[in-house]
Design goal:
- InterPro entries: Flavin_Rdtase-like_dom, NADH-dep_flavin_reductase, Split_barrel_FMN-bd.
- Pfam families: Flavin_Reduct (PF01613).
- Keywords: Oxidoreductase.
- It comes from Erythrobacter westpacificensis.
- There is one protein chain.
- The protein has a single domain, classed as Electron Transport, Fmn-binding Protein, Chain A (Pnp Oxidase, Chain A), CATH 2.30.110.10.
- It is 15% helix and 44% strand.
- By secondary structure, it is an alpha+beta fold.
- The chain is built from three helices and twelve strands; from the N terminus they run αβββββαβαββββββ.
- The strands form three sheets. It has a seven-stranded antiparallel β-sheet. The protein has a three-stranded antiparallel β-sheet with strand order 1-11-12, with no helix packed on it.
Length: 173
């Protein structure tokens, strides 16, 4: 890195390239607005607190989910497993009915993928705009988890199977 700094465009490119090499779990974030289902794939999801149980989701303000999520009182974070790759790939098709693949049920006013590794239904308690995104903070209303699932993971523009990755000792070697 140079002391002179990087141009804004170079900094954005370097950031994008660095983030491509951070493995991330894939989530289908969903909601219902005026009776219609909306959803996107996301990797910018994080637990926030255990008291109260809550998480945050970052959504680009140009995303199809943004405005419905802005109006909705509830949303669901569906943690996709390896067995949900078909759902993830279908969510990427422009103008497709995103809920045509997979088994979806409405719980607490949100679409929940029945085969997801985990599903976390939240009540929106705060919204914060930063840059190109809105950070939605949700307080947990309901959760389910399957013990037998491996998360669908995204790395360097590809889905990867982390269950097949070599195991390390955890000692930092």
């Amino acid at each position: 890195m140079s002391d002179a700094g990087q141009s804004e465009a170079d900094l954005v490119d370097a950031f994008r390239e660095a983030m491509r090499h951070v493995a991330a779990t894939v989530y289908a974030v969903t909601t219902i607005d005026n009776g219609d289902r909306y959803g996107i794939l996301a990797t910018a999801v994080s637990s926030l607190s255990f008291e109260p149980p809550s998480l945050l989701v970052c959504v680009n303000r140009t995303a199809s989910l943004h405005d419905p999520l802005e109006r909705a009182e509830r949303f669901c974070v569906n943690v996709l497993g390896l067995g949900n790759r078909d759902v993830a790939e279908h969510f990427m098709i422009p103008h497709a009915d995103r809920f045509a693949v997979g088994e979806w049920e409405d719980h607490h006013g949100t679409p929940v993928l029945t085969s997801a590794q985990s599903s976390l239904v939240c009540r929106t308690v705060h919204r914060h705009v930063f840059g190109t995104h809105t950070i939605f903070i949700g307080e947990l209303l309901a959760a389910k988890h399957r013990q037998d699932a491996t998360p669908l993971t995204y790395f360097d523009r590809n889905y990867i199977d982390i269950s097949a990755a070599p195991q390390r000792s955890g000692r930092g070697d």
